[in-house]
Amino acid sequence: xGQFVESGGDLVQPGGSLRLSCVASESxxxxxxxxxxxxxxxxxxxxxxxxxxGGTTKYAxxxxxxxxxxxxxxxxxxxxQMNRLKxxxxxxxxxxxxxxxxxxxxxxxxxxSWGQGTQVTVSS
Length: 124
Hints:
Helices cover 4% and strands 44% of the residues.
């Protein structure tokens, strides 16, 4: 694992909910933004949401109105609340820091150091 550790993935039925956690090894207030990403088998890694610690969050169209990012500064943790889950949400979910330049370029890390992620499986 790198600077961020993901957890909370599980097997859940379609329509269910799940909350993922991303714990940072440093004060989250010192980080410009944290992005949530996912990668399904055979697919490229996809940006799900990028959350600026200052408060702004941008969501991918595929998850808008279903996923919500929140944070707990005291715990150096960023959360991804996932509701109304669909089978197509099945993927390994990752979090990663986002610099100001990366934020304004779309939220993709230039030199990422991905951790193990956490598996989310949506199936009946």
